[in-house]
Every structure is written in structure tokens, then in C-alpha cells.
Amino acid sequence: MKTFLKVFIGVLLTVGLFTFAFYRTPQERAFAKNLKLAQSGDEGAALAVAQAYEQGQGTKPNKEQALEWYQQAAAGGSAQAAWQLFQIYSKGDWVQADIPAALTYLQAAAQNNYPEAQYELGNQYMQGKNVPEHAGQAYYWYMQAAANHSRPAKAKVDALSTENPTLYDSLNRFMQALQTVEKDPQTQLEIGQAYRYGLPILREDNTAFTWFKKAWEASNEELSQAAYELADQYAKGEGVEKDETLATNLFAKAAELKNPAAQYQMGIFAYTENPARFEDAFAWFSNAAAQGHAQGQYMTGFMLLQGQGTNKSVPLAIRFFEQAAEQNDASAQYVLGQIYTKGLGVKRNAALGRSWLERAAENGNESAQALLAN
User: Fold this and answer.
1) Is a pLDDT exceeding 80 seen at residue 14?
2) What is the structure's pLDDT at 17?
3) pLDDT digits (tens, 9 = 90+) for 80-133
4) How far apart, in whole angstroms, are the C-alpha atoms of residue 141 and residue 2?
5) What counts of helices (H) and strands (E) characterise the chain?
6) pLDDT band for position 40 (50/70/90)?
7) How high is the pLDDT of residue 246?
């Protein structure tokens, strides 16, 4: 009997020691499971592992490991992990503060529809904190956050509709365009122009170029303004590497599709060649002028006044100058001021001449400003 008791007690001790050595709490089992999934690339599990390391749940606290797993989760597309990294790098509590890194993660979280990040990014653009101050960009992110049920963002958007209805309407149109763009080239063009000219959102040349290219391709190379915008970006190296050959080819395609701005540019190419091709230049300028292009009207008038590429005609030149001047083309206003003040080919009219010079000066023409000052 004593022997049996000894054996029984020995078995109990062995089982107890085995259980003590190998027993894992539910948190430890969850951590082990998530770690295995995270190591196979599961972003949700990577986030869970990062949180466990940060909080010491199911494993010993390890901030270094937590940071690595947050980064892996964010790289896999976890908006929550990106948001957490923004806070870690901006506060600098347990890593050295790194504002550029924090901003990168904030933008990633916002772009992945994390409402707290969208609201915070709106605040940063509104205050010009770490980013350019830009009300349109701020309210763009507030609207995104409001759509994701952020109450403080909705309050700001509601206030904007009353305080600045013009910006509110412009942003609404822009966001509707983003939601309905699909393969509509005209909508793609409008989105590109919003990004290129910074209205109503912040200017982004790279993004603008992408949308212009989509619009040009989706239109089967028939949307002239898309070709013009691409050409102009290639010519200036905005959002893409500068390429004058591609720019010229696209300007030519746009001009052939009767785009007035492209026709004007083709006129400039012909006018400034050495030797100049005046007849070609006049043809392009007059085509642009016929479509109401102010600079095309000015150059058509200028060439008529000089007799370049066409017969000289002061009365006809004045007609084109007046068309451009009524569109607030300062150069045309200045020339009209000179013509009437000095009586160049017309009856002298000092009052009318001064009126045109004053309008030119108001529009920033330095020659007109200097002439009036003297």
C-alpha cells in the first residue's frame, strides 16, 4: 500500500511539473498563433503581434520588436499600424522623433481610409504643420474623414458649407469626379487639371501627369486638351522628365485637333525658328485667335501691324489687339495705349490711349507703368 501511494504521489508530481512547465495562458497561445501567421505575411496578425509586444500581452514587452512588426503590418497595408507608427514617430516616446517618417505613415493611414488619420491630416494642412498650409487640401481630408463617420470632421465640413460655399461646392465636385471617373476621359482631364493648378486641392504635378495620360489614352488620342497638358508638362519638366521632342509632338497633335493653346504654341515655334517661318506662324496664331485665344489674338495683331507673314493692316491689327485687350491681355492693352497716344496709323486720341495704358498698368505691364510714371 505504501509503495502504491509513493508511486501515485510521484505520478501527480510529474504531471504537475509537466503542466507547470508547458502550460500556456490563452494570451500566450494567441500570441504564438499570431506570430506564426505574421511570419507568413498576414498583416492583421502582424498588427496583433506588434500590439502584444508593446503591451506585454502573451509575451514579454519588447518595444523594438513592436516597432518592427508595426512596420511590417503597415507595409502590408494596415491603416491602423500606419496610424500607430505616426504617433510613435511624432511623439518620440520610445523611439527618436522623426517627423518626415511620421508624416509618411500619417498619409498612408489617411489614404487607406483611417478616419482618425484623415482628420489629423486635415488639421495639419489647415495649420500648415509639417505640410504646406492649404485650406482646400485640409477640407478634402475632412470630407474624407466625415464620409468615414468622423464626427469632428463632419462638424468642420458642415461649417464650411456656410462659411465658404464656393470652396465647399468646388471640393464636392472634385470628390464626385474621383468617385465617378471610371474611363471617362473628360472627367480624368478635369481631375488632372485640379492637381496641376492646385484648385481646389494641393498641386501635385506627378499625379496630374498620371491623370492627363489616362485621359489622353482613354480618349483614343482625341481629347486635345489632354494632349496639350501633357505637352506642356513635358516642355517644362513638371511631374515628368523634361522632353522637348515629346512635347513638340504632343503640341502638334493637339493643334491638329484644333486646340487653341496648342495652335498658339505651334505659332511660337514657327515664329522663333531661325530663320523664322512667318507664314506658318501667322496661320497658327490666326487659327488660335479665331477661337478666342487672347495671346493668339495679340500675336495676330502684332504680325498684321508689322506685315510679317501677311499683308500689313493697321486697322485689322487694332481689331485683334482690342479683342485681346478686352480679355485683359496686358500686352495688347499696352500696344493700344501706344497706338492711340501717339496716333500710330490712327487719329491720335490721348484720352483713349491713356485709358488703355492704365488698364495695362493695373494688369502688371511694367512698360505701361513706367510710361505713366513719366
Assistant:
1) no
2) 46
3) 999 999 999 999 888 899 999 999 999 999 999 999 999 999 999 999 999 999
4) 79
5) 21, 0
6) confident
7) 97
Spell out the residues 6+ positions from residue 9 whose beta carbon is closer than 8 angstroms to its own: none
Question: Any idea what DSSP says for residue 2?
Answer: H
The angle subtended at Cα 356 by Cα 355 and Cα 358, nearest 5°, is 65
What is the per-residue pLDDT for 9?
59
What cell does 226 get? Answer: 489632354
Cα distance between residue 17 and residue 20, in whole Å: 5
Q: In sequence order, what are the residues at sequence separation of 6 or more whose Cβ sits closer than 8 angstroms to the Cβ of residue 118?
A: 110, 141, 142, 144, 145, 148, 150, 153
Of 87, 83, 113, 110, whose CA–CA distance to 99 is shortest?
Answer: 87
Q: Answer for the pair 323, 317: CB distance below 8 angstroms, yes or no.
A: no
Name residue 25's amino acid: T
User: How far from 281 is each of 40, 216, 289, 301, 308, CA to CA, in Å?
Assistant: 65, 26, 12, 12, 9
